[in-house]
Amino acid sequence: MTEARSPKLHTEREGTGGTPRPVEALALSRSYTLGDGSELAILQGVDLAIESGEAVAIVGASGSGKSTLLHLLGALDQPTSGEIRVGGRSLTGRSSQELARLRNRFVGFVFQFHHLLREFTSVENVMLPGLIDGRPRGEMRERARELLEAVGLGERLEHRPGQLSGGEQQRVAVARALANDPVVLLADEPSGNLDTRTSEALHDLLFQIREQRNLSLVLVTHNRELASRADRTLLLREGSLEPTEISREDTWSATTADRETP
User: Fold this and answer.
1) What pTM, to 2 d.p., does this model score?
2) Which of 7, 130, 229, 254 would be a feasible disulfide site paired with 222, CB 3.0-4.6 Å?
3) d(CA 47, CA 72)
4) Are the beta carbons of 152 and 202 closer than 8 angstroms?
5) Average pLDDT of the residues in 77-105
6) Residue 129: what are its φ and ψ, rounded to 5°?
7) Host H or E run for residue 217
């Protein structure tokens, strides 16, 4: 999709080097109204700037708001206050349709569960974001084939999700996330349902893609090894982000049997 297709999405701010940052959050807050009318604050005044090609891990205890923050950054939810910019484009005041178009074009998602359409083949699943964006079917089929080959699934093009292993399903999900050449890849516990060996292979793939494409990567994880590979690790605690170092005493890390509930 060229910029000419979405003239309403031009409200750009520049980051370092004179180019828009892939993702930026300014004084971001999110709260929810409970049944008794009281307010539950999840995020309070969060500031975050992701540079091009940077990998940032967001860690914290279960229920601290990590998935909430990721959903806000990816325009899946809207903040109570504050501003989010994706590729320099402010999300403030956008209609649902505009947010959906921006999200599909500029953000790639990889979740703990692959969310593939079971009746579609690998190629068809990867084609979907581009087809939604209005790109020609032939172009997207070739794009999907190239991406699947890039993630090591060149021989699984016509397989449906039920015919793939868990690791292969996640690789299809990664390829799908790259279909529209996003400015940022948001990954929420991407290896949370995988065994240790398969998890390590997926982590290698994510960082290989980041290196090859100079793609910004934001990871929400309980996995200490994955967090340690990021350029920065940020701890979400009591609604705020703070820099942190990885250690064996981290209370936020989890074993493969202790998964976060979004």
Assistant:
1) 0.85
2) 254
3) 12
4) no
5) 92
6) -60, -40
7) strand 216-220
